[in-house]
């Protein structure tokens, strides 16, 4: 279980924070980030644990991972104070009432809270509200998966993409990893041993821990989406010296542009923000997205801190606004 917290957080002790604390959680398939905010809206502590998704409640193993991760998060946050409310953005959550009720119960327990103290939404809704007010623009978010989102002034949520790694999620970390492995093993079908002359294959196999098919098979079919998505780091590490790796990242940018164009076609041209950790892999991703959009479309990048925004929303500061 990966657990980390801000090394400077102890400088902002709960005693100095004052008032009731709000805990914000931005949960994705690769990593779950958390933050505590006081009633002045100041972030007093933050950290991260392993990735979780709403889909994990459907299996025994997934449920156990979800519970263990939440307990690890609660223990890390408790060092700095006890939250009065928790605002959660959770990947894979579609708003179903029965799922929401179960998730709130699960999330309330490690914090000693009641289910009604847990404010639950999709992680993309949370990221949108961290960047736009409703009706202002479109958020294209690329992490483990990829999606474009638009929230109307009336609160209606609209999306393009976000269909999961089996169907699509083009431009996301899982897709980048899958494209890389597809190319490597197709090349091995045609020219066995060609991986030795491929910087991409060398980086990928180093990350996986083996250059045989059994190692790749175990990695992509036995790992979680988040674990597989992390292989995108190896693809990015090869991009400046390997044209195939560079091309995969360039295509990722084109795919993310397609999501934005889809929403502009449905609801009109509005400002577009690209967020999520995939944009940090290599500059060609955002550059390719920009080049793939019509010239009159506005695009800017955002280093989203959705867990900070969620913490402020959950604190007394957020309740007063």
Task: Write a structural description.
The protein is an alpha/beta fold. It has helices spanning 14-17, 60-78, 97-108, 123-131, 173-190, 199-208, 213-222, 225-229, 232-238, 243-267, 283-292, 306-314, 316-320, and strands at 3-5, 21-27, 31-37, 43-50, 83-90, 118-122, 138-142, 146-151, 157-161, 272-275, 299-301. The strands form 2 sheets. Strands 1-4-3-2-5-6 form a 6-stranded mixed β-sheet. Strands 9-8-7-10-11 form a 5-stranded mixed β-sheet, sandwiched between helices. Helix 4 crosses helix 12 (306-314). This is ATPase BadF/BadG/BcrA/BcrD type domain-containing protein. Pfam families: BcrAD_BadFG (PF01869). Residues 23-282 form the ATPase BadF/BadG/BcrA/BcrD type domain.
CATH topology of one domain: Nucleotidyltransferase, domain 5
Distance between the termini: 36 Å
Global morphology: globular
Share of helix, binned: 40-55%
Poorly predicted regions: 7-18
Percentage beta strand: 15-25%
Largest sheet geometry: 6 strands, mixed
Mean pLDDT value: 91
Report the CATH C-level class of one domain.
Answer: Alpha Beta
CA gyration radius, whole angstroms: 20 Å
Count of discrete alpha- or pi-helical segments spanning 4 or more residues: 13
Count of extended strands: 11
InterPro entries: ATPase_BadF, ATPase_NBD, Euk-type_GlcNAc_Kinase
Protein name: ATPase BadF/BadG/BcrA/BcrD type domain-containing protein
Organism: Undibacterium terreum
């Amino acid at each position: 279980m990966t657990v980390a917290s801000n090394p400077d957080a102890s400088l902002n002790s709960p005693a100095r924070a004052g008032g009731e604390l709000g805990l914000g959680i931005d949960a994705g398939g690769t990593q779950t980030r958390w933050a505590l905010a006081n009633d002045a809206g100041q972030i007093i502590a933050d950290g991260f644990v392993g990735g979780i998704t709403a889909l994990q409640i459907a299996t025994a193993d997934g449920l156990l991972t979800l519970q263990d991760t939440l307990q690890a998060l609660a223990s890390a946050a408790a060092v700095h104070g006890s939250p009065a409310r928790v605002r959660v953005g959770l990947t894979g959550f579609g708003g179903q009432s029965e799922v929401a009720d179960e998730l709130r119960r699960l999330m309330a327990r490690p914090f000693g809270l009641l289910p009604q103290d847990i404010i639950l939404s999709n992680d993309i809704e949370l990221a949108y509200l961290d960047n736009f007010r409703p009706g202002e623009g479109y958020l294209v978010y690329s992490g483990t998966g990829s999606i474009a989102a638009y929230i109307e002034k009336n609160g209606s949520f609209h999306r393009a993409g976000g269909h999961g790694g089996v169907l699509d999620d083009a431009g996301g970390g899982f897709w980048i990893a899958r494209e890389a492995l597809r190319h490597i093993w197709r090349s091995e079908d045609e020219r066995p041993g060609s991986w030795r002359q491929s910087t991409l294959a060398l980086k990928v196999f180093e990350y996986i821990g083996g250059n045989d098919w059994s190692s790749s098979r175990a990695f992509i079919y036995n790992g979680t989406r988040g674990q597989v998505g992390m292989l995108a780091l190896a693809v990015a590490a090869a991009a400046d010296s390997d044209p195939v790796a560079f091309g995969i990242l360039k295509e990722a940018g084109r795919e993310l542009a397609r999501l934005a164009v889809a929403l502009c076609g449905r609801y009109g041209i509005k400002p577009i923000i690209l967020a999520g950790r995939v944009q940090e892999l290599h500059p060609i991703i955002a550059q390719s997205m920009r080049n793939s959009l019509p010239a009159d479309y506005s695009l800017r990048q955002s280093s989203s801190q959705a867990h900070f925004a969620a913490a402020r929303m959950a604190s007394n500061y957020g309740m007063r606004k």
